[in-house]
Specification:
- The protein has a seven-stranded mixed beta sheet with strand order 1-7-6-5-4-2-3, sandwiched between helices. It has a five-stranded mixed beta sheet with strand order 8-9-12-11-10, covered by helices on one side.
- The longest helix is centred in the last third of the chain and has 21 residues.
- With 401 residues, the protein is an alpha/beta fold.
- It has two domains: 225 residues, Type I PLP-dependent aspartate aminotransferase-like (Major domain) (Aspartate Aminotransferase, domain 2, 3-Layer(aba) Sandwich); 139 residues, Aspartate Aminotransferase, domain 1 (Alpha-Beta Complex).
- The structure holds pyridoxal-5'-phosphate.
- The site of pyridoxal-5'-phosphate (PLP) has 13 residues, from helix 4.
């Protein structure tokens, strides 16, 4: 008989298999046991036919990966510790010294910082293209271009590009394209089938998400995903992912698995409230421009309508306002400070509404012609009552004077 300390570690009890409940089980592991040495030598993690090490996958991470593939219409998925890590993984897997990557000028700012810092440091060049002018993308593709990033809608300024035209340009040039699909969340449009019903399918090569945003939905998890459909491309990404030692915690995967069943309901509610508030802002005299792709006057409304106008015409819960030029940064800062329900904070996709002033002149190569001059503020609309949020905006606008 073993001693108690040993028995408590090597306990013989096996619960009956087949437990079923609304949420899948959570498996935490670094070490994974093999039944014998032969199995240890034979088990393969690359095709998910077995378990070999915590970093290579557990039932919890495999389950989340499969559900995210279903959400996006992809075939393979990798989980990484953040949305930014998803962007970094794609860059590191596909680019080498001497290559060039093209990035839309309105891209998520840390993705630009990654290109300007690490990628440049490793001899990988980058160029920014005008997301609203497909001809500019076509002109910037060179023999060195190995990857084109796309983002719809753009971060902060929310211009919606002609994604189909951009993907066609990449296809014609035989350059891989990766989409940051955080805004669309797999709901607004299908990145691997941009024109449903048309064959062959028009598709991006890779779609990444910040699961941090809508899929987790709580403002309490950081995670990203890299989804693809081509097996060879996936293996290139997966080997890089493994060599870099990227993985996610089971409890974080659990949090995203918990968020997924309510994703479309939440997304729709965020969208409905954001649209109502964006319309309200459009009536106000304080704003020179309201940026929301579902507003007919907003940059990229037509491509948004073409791609997302089906079903309920999904548009996420984000919009930005540009204050009339008479308002100073200090006045706009006072407006942000005066908001009660809106909290000042980065990120989005959680229940709490957020506000953030941005200094656009520091984020763009030049001030885009389609944007009015003035101080810009982005709102992320949470799940509070839209009427309460509207009252909050109204009372905070008094702080401008
Ligand atoms: C938030 C965000 C990211 C990065 O996600 P993190 O999990 O915060 O690293 C990437 N792209 C877009 C468009 C985002 O909004």
């Amino acid at each position: 008989m073993a001693e108690l300390t040993t028995t408590l570690i090597h306990h013989p009890y096996q619960p009956p298999a087949g437990f079923a409940a609304p949420q899948p089980g959570v498996f935490k592991a670094s070490t994974v046991f093999f039944p014998n040495v032969a199995a240890m030598r034979q088990f393969e993690w690359k095709d998910k036919s077995a378990y070999t090490y915590g970093l290579h996958g557990t039932p919890t991470t495999y389950t989340l990966e499969e559900r995210l593939c279903t959400l996006e219409g992809g075939v393979q998925c990798l989980l990484v510790p953040s949305g930014l890590a998803a962007i970094a993984t794609v860059n590191l897997a596909l680019l080498k010294s001497g290559d060039e990557v093209l990035i839309p000028d309105n891209a998520y700012a840390p993705a630009k910082a990654l290109a300007e810092g690490e990628l440049a440091h490793w001899g990988i060049a980058h160029r920014y293209f005008d997301p609203m002018n497909p001809a500019d993308l076509a002109a910037k593709i060179s023999p060195y271009t190995q990857l084109v990033w796309l983002e719809a809608a753009g971060s902060v300024t929310l211009e919606f590009p002609d994604l189909c035209a951009q993907v066609r340009i990449c296809r014609a040039a035989k350059v891989l394209c990766a989409l940051d699909n955080t805004w669309g969340a797999g709901l607004a449009f299908k990145p691997f089938d941009l024109q449903p019903g048309q064959l062959p399918a028009l598709a991006v090569d890779i779609s990444i998400h910040a699961l941090t945003k809508y899929p987790s939905g709580g403002g309490d998890v950081l995670m990203g995903s890299v989804i693809s459909t081509d097996e060879r491309l996936h293996m290139q990404l997966k080997l890089c992912h493994m060599r870099l030692g990227l993985g996610v915690a089971a409890s974080d995967a659990e949090a995203v698995l918990r968020g997924l069943p309510s994703l479309s309901l939440r997304y729709r509610q965020h969208d409905e409230s954001a649209r109502a508030l964006a319309h309200w802002c459009q009536q106000r005299v304080e704003f020179a421009q309201v940026l929301h792709p579902a507003l007919p006057q907003s940059p990229g409304h037509a491509p948004w309508q073409a791609l997302c106008g089906h079903a309920f015409g999904a548009a996420a819960g984000l919009f930005s306002v540009i204050f009339k030029p008479g308002y100073s940064q200090a006045q706009v800062d006072a407006f942000c400070n005066a908001l009660q329900w809106f909290r000042i904070g980065y990120s989005w996709g959680g229940p709490v509404s957020l506000v953030m002033p941005y200094q656009l002149e520091t984020m763009r190569s030049s001030w885009p012609a389609h944007l009015q001059r003035g101080v810009l503020v982005r709102f992320s609309i949470g799940l509070e009552s839209a009427a309460d949020l509207q009252q909050d905006l109204q009372q905070a606008l008094q702080a401008l004077t």
